[in-house]
Amino acid sequence: MSLEFLSDEWFAKVKEVRDAAGDVEVPAGLADLVINITVSADGGDKQLALVAGMIEEGHHADAGTTMILPADLAKRIFIEGDQSAGMQGFMSGQIRIEGDMSKLMVLQTAQPSADQVALMKQIQELTA
Questions:
Q1: Distance between first and last Cα of the chain
Q2: Sign of torsion, CA 74 25 12 128?
Q3: Domain boundaries, the chain
Q4: Mind listing the pLDDT tens digit for each residue in 86-104?
Q5: Contact at 8 Å (CB) between 115 and 18?
Q6: CA dihedral 7, 9, 11, 16 (to 10 degrees)
Q7: Cα–Cα distance, 29 to 35 (Å, whole number)
Q8: What is the rounded CA–CA span in Å between residue 13 and residue 19?
Q9: What confidence category does residue 111 fall into, taking pLDDT thresholds of 50, 70 and 90?
Q10: Cα separations (Å) of 88 from 39, 48, 84?
Q11: CATH assignment, 8-122
Q12: How far apart are alpha carbons 123 and 7 in whole angstroms?
């Protein structure tokens, strides 16, 4: 089953997969990290957040950082795990940051746990 990235159905399935995974071990640096993400898509902007290394629908009031980027780049970074795409997007101006940019440095240095890798593989498989 492939669901369109950032569709309502995709968010619902990601939540279902995440909930089924239970307590996922995350690196210490990610445990308290909350970053809002605004993704520019053809159907309008989509709001999500990266909370303790997990994707959630909607923005969080306590996030000190917001990343704004196009949908294709968001998919490459957050679904395909292409970190070089993130750096290229930032350097080319496709990614804008509002707030505390130092929070993003944690993302670059944190190594995902085996639990996170397994969960991301499941999310990759359901994403069109």
A1: 8
A2: positive
A3: 8-122
A4: 889 989 999 999 999 888 8
A5: no
A6: -170
A7: 13
A8: 10
A9: confident
A10: 17, 21, 6
A11: 3.30.1050.10
A12: 13
